[in-house]
Design a protein that fits this description.
By secondary structure, the protein is mostly helical. The chain has two domains: about 40 residues, no CATH class; about 80 residues, no CATH class. It is about 40% helix and about 5% strand. The protein contains five helices and two strands; from the N terminus they run H-E-H-E-H-H-H. Helix 3 crosses helix 4. The longest helix has 20 residues. The chain starts with a helix and ends in a 24-residue tail after the last helix. The model has no long low-confidence stretch (mean pLDDT about 85).
Amino acid sequence: MELQNHETPAAFRTDTGGEYVTNHLNGFFTTKGIIQECSLPYSPESNGVPEHLDCTIEESLRVMLECAPTYDKKLSAEAVLATVYIKNRQPHSALKDLTPHEAFHGTKPSSQHIQPFRRECYIHIQYPQ
């Protein structure tokens, strides 16, 4: 966010799962002036919005992989990325009918280039003569 938008986040909220609670990361947040907010351990209900988003991503992942011509778990990361990419280009009620992409970048996103997941494609590389 700092590199793309020249703004430092005010806060970073985690679920006290361990991966974001380290001395190194705490020191980084302190030097940047970022407040680290930790929810109670083992209480997903206190992280309602992120937990709901995780469920949405998991469901989309399952559908994308199961509906593909050949089921391949190796494509899980790509399915998650595709889901988040599409979700960031959909209007959101918390942003007054803006998309997250539009709110962050200031430009309306296009969906012209989005293709079905696992669509067969060909890459053409033009070599110099």
